[in-house]
Specification:
74% of the residues lie in helices and 0% in strands. The chain is mainly α. The chain has one domain. The longest helix is centred in the last third of the chain and has 27 residues. The radius of gyration is 18 Å and the shape is elongated.
Length: 80
Amino acid sequence: MEVKFSDDELAEALTVIINRIAEEAGLSDKDRAMLKRWRSSKMKLGSDDMFDYVHKANEDFARGIVRRERSQIRKPDWAD
């Protein structure tokens, strides 16, 4: 099975994660603003950093699927 996330999907997920971290981590206003500036400047669609992030995320996700499929194959029937 192959699952690939698009740039838009991962950009939106990153925005949600960064906003949640900014709100719930107890950061100062300065640190919260710096984190959001980083996301909007470095991790914008089409940037090299975003390309690397999408590529790495898709690789990691695919590796996790393969590992999970492999562990299901080796799992004995009586272990469920």
